[in-house]
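The material for today's practical consists of a large collection of protein records. A record pairs a protein's sequence with a compact description of its fold. Instead of coordinates, the fold is spelled out as a row of discrete tokens. We will come back to this pairing of sequence and fold again and again. Here is such a record, shown just as it appears in the course material.
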Amino acid sequence: MTQQSAPPAEDRTRLPRGLARELFTVKWDPLPKMSRPRWLAWLPHVVLCYVAIPCGVLTGMQLNDHYKVYGGAVLGLSLLTSASVVLSMFRPIAAWWLGLVTTALIAWVLHDHVGHGQSWPWTPAGPFTLAPVILMVALRVPPRVTVSVIGITLALNGLADITLRPPQSQTIIGGVALLFGFVGILGYALRATRLARTKLVEQETLTEEERARRTLLEERSRIARELHDVVAHHMSVISIQAQVAPHLVENPSEELKENLAGIRENALEALTELRRVLGVLRSERPDDPATRQHPQPTLAELDGLVDNVRGAGLNVTTEIAGIRRPLTPGVELTAYRIVQEALSNALRHAPGSRVEVGIAYGPRDLHLCVANTAPTRSAPPSPGAGHGLLGMRERAGMLGGELAAGPRPDGGYEVSAVLPLDPQEPSAGPDPETKRAT
């Protein structure tokens, strides 16, 4: 029984110890700046400095006018009152203790000068000079510390009223409790709003990063599926050629048969491993035979793509430079997808504009350029995630190419890409054995 009751006792002592550490601290805790508008970032600090001046002036005036206290003590207490307000911008708990000490000194100085019906231990303005300090505390510490600060202040006030209050004086502890309670609630509400706004900004940042990461993963999955199609096709062709090749030669040697059988076996094994790794990314419906057999688009289908966009109301012109020739499947597919995405963006974000599609076949690189003029009418809201450029850059980067996009001086937009080519593959004609095998 003793061992089971020990942990609750530990928990009961942990909270007071932590609270004591938070109440007896002089740690640096600066007042946060305003986030918006930026040119008013230091406005709370400036306002608090201006508030500190009348707090000190009021303290000195009431000591002179109401209680007939004069001398250097009045100046010192006025400066301490202003200093506690200024200090609350940087060390709120220390500023509160300084304010309590200043209040105690004022009460001690006033004790023999209190007339009939005058307030004690506070001057009439005393609670209002400590209220900004309590507000600064409530803005930056947990609610339990704020409650403790207000409770200690009121408890010391009540203790002074019971033990030291002059007989002819008047207590104002009720009004002080209402003022400090209101200030504490206000500070708690402002602190909760600031923390909620900070959490919201952090969550929005994380959400945007997660959305970008998810879009990137989806685009990579799509590219992986398309690469799977391309590689699987060629591996299948190799396997078929290795199987058919012995029948195309009269009296093939056993060594040739064994080598061709090894080639076919390795091709099938590589194809199996490839499908095992990437097959699940092929499509959302892997059992759909139409999806599995659908060929990937190439630049040969560019005219059909442009016709579709023209049918949607976009004025598109194309220009092709260099010798138009078949490229490697990866380059063909990437180039087609980049042009397709650029045209979709122009159709979505620049309605009524003129679009120019340029393709230049170089000896080592394929140059793409899709540029549109300024839109002639406002674009409707787009339901997309806004990560099309990310996908295009990812496609170009996987081939070792580069992609640049940005606005043009005339108000339009331009997307340009350079994709490296294998100089041997474009000039290599189709293998006649491949034709016969297929």
